[in-house]
Amino acid sequence: MRDINELRAAIKSAVDAEKEQLIEIGRHIWKNPEPGYREVKTSKYLVEKLKALGLQVKENLALTGFRADIDTGKPGPTLAIMGELDSLIIPTHPEADKETGAIHACGHNSSATAIIGTAIGLLKSGVLNDMSGKIALIATPAEEGIELEYRLGLIREGKIGSIAGKPQLIREGVFDDVDLAYMTHLTSGNFGFNDHNGSIQKIVTFKGKSCHAASPQNGINAQNAVCLAQNAIAFMREKYSNSDKIRIHGIISYCGNSSNVIPDEARMEYMLRAPSIPELVALGKRFDNAVTHASLAAECTCTIDTISGYMPLFDNMKMGQVLKDTVEYLKPGAPFNFNNSFFSSCTDMGDVASIVPGVHGYCPGYSGASHSASMHITDEYSSYVTMSMLNAELCLNLLYGDAATAKEIAADRKGLLSIPEYIKLIDQFDGSITSEYKE
Predict the structure, then answer these.
(1) How confident is the model over 168-220, as pLDDT tens digits?
(2) Residue 240 DSSP one-character state
(3) Relative to the CA of 113, which of 142, 159, 217, 267 has its CA 20 to 30 Å away?
């Protein structure tokens, strides 16, 4: 068996040799953004790249996701390396798609590119003979919690069971043989990893009675229910004034079509974030109470559809140390955030890390604010090439030799759920309640 430093250098060289191709892939995905469960072109483009490397690909997983395995030929753990496919929708971004408003303002085009870069690093370096186990390259759709009404429609049509891609892949059995999991996300900060909030989603529909706006006494204004509900939600935040993790935010997705008609329907979409399942349950109940009573005060009927969003993310510390060591090899002395700050944002990597040991790592590469019109990729080499190196080198460090490091991490399942337990847990959130106003 060759010295691991020789293999590390081989991976780094193999990925760097393909830097122009990887940067072109990253640019192509950036210029062709597609939101969740609509990533048809992105998926097809990447699948063709993997097939050109000689890999067999299982397609149409969670509608647009896919999986390609790299087998070392020796028994050992299965390590999932993930990349995300979907974009956001921010029409005001200067590079947003002119028709859809889609834009990769969270940098998922980089982790999607790194799927190809990881494959290149492992296949073209000759390191597999010195590793054990299997690497599952998994492209995951629909990480962003957007277009809730569209996704709820997919659920009602029986096409999906979860609004987010990784939970859907878990439902479909894609992670049944996975022992541990990792993905890298782009950041404007330092290398590292952080725990994250979990979330649930709410779609609220208010029903009133339309009439001519010049005679509003003849109708029931659904917009009034929206205004009262949003004020009730604002006052509800007082209960969480000591928490730096709870987040409640949303939009009005529909509120009539004409100023000359009292609207008889209005809709809101909300995301509730909290760091634990009990806190999410309590937050959801408090939200429902505030909204339904506001609706009754406006003499409207209210329906609240609740959809499970993301599990809280708790990173595996032993894998986090392997990530730190990997970064130190690639970028000696680079600052590294070893889970020393909690992120109030959410990721469906939390769902994967609920069933297997996992880490959601970060690699620098963009400037501006994430999820905004100011976000731009400013370091293409880091975003696409370094991230690919990081993934492939991490695979080597975990699966080197007889994969002892990966085996040790995979064996520690303290606090983790079986897949049936996980599905039962997230399904408890899904449901619909209606509060009907009666005179």
Answers:
(1) 999 999 999 999 999 999 999 999 999 999 999 999 999 999 999 999 999 99
(2) G
(3) 159
